[in-house]
Amino acid sequence: MRRALALILGVTAVACSQPAPPPAPPPPPPSTAIVSSLRTGYEMVKGYVTQAAEQIPEAKYSYQPTKDVRTIGQLIGHISDANYLICGYSSGQAGPGTSAEKSMTKKADLQKALADSFAFCDKAHAAMTNDAVGGQDVTMTVINNMKTTRAGAFAFNSAHDMEHYGNLVTYMRMNKMVPPSSAPAPPK
Amino acid sequence: MKVLGVSVLAGVVFTGAMLTAQTPQQPAPASANPLSDQIKTYFTRVKGYLTKSIEMVPADKWKWQPTPDVRTFARTFGHISDDNNGACWQLGGLTAAPARLDTPDSMDSKVHSMTREEVTKIYLDSFALCDKAFEQVNDQNAATPPVAGGRGTRLGSLAYNWAHINEHYGNLVTYFRLNSIVPPSSAGRGGF
Prior knowledge:
The structure holds 2 protein chains of 2 kinds.
Chain A (H helix, E strand, L loop, with lengths): L1 H16 L15 H23 L16 H20 L8 H4 L3 H20 L3 H4 L4 E3 L5 E3 L1 H25 L14
Antiparallel strand pairs in A: 1-2
Chain B lengths: L5 H17 L11 H23 L16 H20 L23 H20 L18 H25 L14
């Protein structure tokens, strides 16, 4: 009996001398891979449109290649208005509901409206994670009540901007300007 | 496409209203892949506009360009084929990289030595390749890289290709308007 007791005490002592198991690692941060890849396309078109608005001289803001299409100024205004609207859907934070397309004609005003609208989109998407972009939880009421995901609205905004950047490319070429996407890369 | 495919949506709504009159309305089943299905839906819409666009160009305008510094109608369709093939072979890994069509970047482009029918076939095939590649994207693999390599995620690649061809649809809209042709996205809306 004494022997058994000694044995038990010995085993207990060995067990107690083992180091405590390490604490569980913290959970990994939420993945942002999807949002990051969508942001790459957004940053590209934001850069192109911003640079185009800068590059086009004030006198050409009223240019339109034919009467059935928007002027350059109206295109910049339309992109600004749409940025607020669609990024408002993707973030759930409604934008100010601007109408730059209809109310502005001056280059400086339109450039500011454009920059402000992109800043709104930047903020809207800054904290987005993969977990927050899924689910059909967004209704784009102004766009025929289209139901979409937050990621869908984010991507929709970039594609919409790209379409109108495509308009601007042709307008610029018709005015002997090289659009930003075709400009030679700066020397390294 | 001024405010985003209103005519197509209006058609869907109209058709939906007709069906409502005949059958009890059922809620749409939730998609098992809401993220990827949504982007595919958008891609399918612009694919429809672009497929219609190549049919709509008058024969005598096939090599028309608004200024010498931009692509002709024909070359724009060749370039869109290259965009689709470049993005979608990599996304799906279903084929080797298809040969480029709109090369060199000049009026000597291969596109101009081909018939309109030949270019149209390659163009439609490029959309079919994308459809097959997109079928493989779902919400479970959306955050993983494209099958044959490349940057970003499968969903990002899908969205990028959609945005890129949207840019070139934006070129075509202006080309059409300069020729007094109403582009597909504006048809049915009073022409503007």
